[in-house]
Amino acid sequence: MIDVAIMGHGVVGSGVAEVLLKNAEHISEKAKTSINIKKILDLREFPGLTYSDKFTKDFNEILDDPDIRVVAEVMGGLHPAYEFTKALLESGKSVVSSNKELVAEKGDELLRIAEEKNVNYLFEASVGGGIPVLRPIAQCLAANGLYEVQGILNGTTNFIMTKMVSDGEPFEEVLAEAQRLGYAEKDPTADVEGHDACRKICILAALAFGKHVYPKDVYTEGITKITSADIQYADFAGCVIKLIGRARMADNGKCSVTVYPAFVPKKNQLAHVEDVFNAVMVRGDAVGDVMFYGRGAGKLPTASAVVADIIDAVKHLSARKYLSWAPAEDGYVSDHTEDTVRLYVRVKADKCRDCLRAKAEELFGELQLLGRNGEAGDELAFITPFASEKQLMAQLAKLNGTVLSTIRLLD
Amino acid sequence: MIDVAIMGHGVVGSGVAEVLLKNAEHISEKAKTSINIKKILDLREFPGLTYSDKFTKDFNEILDDPDIRVVAEVMGGLHPAYEFTKALLESGKSVVSSNKELVAEKGDELLRIAEEKNVNYLFEASVGGGIPVLRPIAQCLAANGLYEVQGILNGTTNFIMTKMVSDGEPFEEVLAEAQRLGYAEKDPTADVEGHDACRKICILAALAFGKHVYPKDVYTEGITKITSADIQYADFAGCVIKLIGRARMADNGKCSVTVYPAFVPKKNQLAHVEDVFNAVMVRGDAVGDVMFYGRGAGKLPTASAVVADIIDAVKHLSARKYLSWAPAEDGYVSDHTEDTVRLYVRVKADKCRDCLRAKAEELFGELQLLGRNGEAGDELAFITPFASEKQLMAQLAKLNGTVLSTIRLLD
After folding, report:
1. A329 lies in some domain
2. Predicted complex ipTM exceeds 0.90
3. I need a labelling partner for A334 at 20 to 30 A (CA). Which of A263, A372, B2, B110 fits?
4. How far apart are CA A153 and CA A258, in angstroms?
5. Averaged pLDDT in 10-residue chunks for chain A of 411 residues
6. Domain span at residue A308?
7. Any catalytic annotation for residue B200?
8. Does B26 touch chain A (CB under 8 A)?
9. How many domains does chain A have?
């Protein structure tokens, strides 16, 4: 029997306890030993549970207990999760985590401590909830030179985009509905502004390319400015708009890491990922495109990934697992305005649509013109040829019209 | 440095050599040691390669070489792959394999020998080519009670079905095109009759539910009888037709394992898997639906999975990995005619369509009637309510018409 502890008894933490208790028999077969929840850390009271006796408010009861070998950190937030995790790893305990914020900010340091202490720091649940993503990238795709990861990494925004497409409702209304359904929080900033997706693409980039990436270095744009008109033009172009996290290795050793809404062509599998589902597409030189799909959030899916990490940590109490990456490096993340892209552009003409179109063709050469039902007479929508974002934006400033929307294409 | 051998230098074997040589630096980082191809077994001559000196025609040169610790069996076929693999495992070498036929027929026995000898028998490449499937099921989803696996497991048939849908061409023409493109073999039986998909669903069922399943016990139906009319009716019903391998655990401890073409509703992710791509959907009690998608065949994708297994075997030279399942058991695979399904049925009326429709409604109750362009005046197509296949087929025999097609719905 191995004793474990859970830090945090919120949505994920209570799910971890539930899965460990409900699937105990099956899990002990997998782990080759039974797993006993010895302590649960939470400042709140939880009377009336079958395991109410296990709660403590004192972190030291976990840190100082030599029987506890594996701890699940499912508190979320940077502090005190960082200090607790560091102390646990330094004391020779393995830690498994669903805390994307912590891994994105401090993953390199915590992995280094785990390596020094020959214990494990695992965090499958931090990206894609219950979807196996990190371990398959690290293990199964080990033979590949990976060169790109792109994904739908946030269920809330994907739910909103799916609804905007299917029902034609504007962003604000769909957000309000998502909040009513419990898919979006009261303060939806972290989701709709892309910060949550940003943390996840940082973790994926670090794992795929071997170097830590800080969220602050990643260009991040949310979905709050997407309009129904944009969605209609996307449909005309054979695309849907999705919030895409993307990391690409360039030949010069720099990494492009971005989060922004993009026109996704319907032939890309990501275009068919709907509602709260997430998906991660990985591109390798041998394997080609591989995609992992499933529920990216929610109590039991996320708990399922945390418990799989607990099982793995229990099976490898003194054997290091595969995860590691180097510290961040200045200049490693490239300037996104130098990326080569195509842009969808929607412009309101200053004077006449035909003059605007003539000017646009003068500036960009041949354009892919888009249309939609109920298009305003002074509106022009088109897709530019490939060029650096910087160049394209400079040309757009010269248009004889007001740019209403620009959205990148996912090629 | 670890010495390995490759048995078979066909499409996959040459890909394994290529990946090991091309990505050597990256792979040695992952494996924490360099991997050296010491011998390649093949009866043919391969002059002019950079590694032509490594070839041997004598299996004993590999078996008796104590330096060779890991062997990739990529010969295919049951014999002599079975005898070779058994001898290698018994001599204490780890074996990795892409040989789905061998794993589906002898997996339980070979895994038992590997366990006794404390070596590894790994075969990620046997299902889904380069897509990480088996390891994520065994490891990442370990916390789940899994209850269903369904997948598009054969690229050739999926290419054919995709083309039949997009171009409206009949089976024979698309098959001929697939053969021209090299996606189908001259003798396409193993693919189009579902035998290849059958071996893969046997392996998935064994891994997900813990008991060996023999291909001979699995009801297997290919795609040769699908017509353009069926595809049009499927479209009318909001579905596409795909060859689906499926394994489900029933509450009575029996397992339903089948391979047949099915109407797949477009809201199921599998409906969007096109061309030669494969996908496996796994359903767990905690995680919900998870899907793995990618190229299910091809030289480098398959080689990528074999090499990932080589890396894993090299890292665990004397530590058993996770894979194991129990021997097959009589009566464990249930009779597919007892499965509850809905059927799409296309019937040519003996006399008049209206009499046929009246009889069908008398037999089945309310029907979901389907239509298509160019429908013959004496043709009726409908979807039955849920019932056991046995019952439905008995009712169909009573119809006043000739049954032209029956295809199951994937619910």
Report:
1. no
2. yes
3. A263
4. 12
5. 97 96 92 96 95 97 98 96 98 97 97 94 95 90 91 97 94 95 92 98 96 97 97 97 97 96 96 96 94 92 95 84 86 96 97 94 94 92 97 96 97 82
6. 2-130+300-315
7. yes
8. yes
9. 3
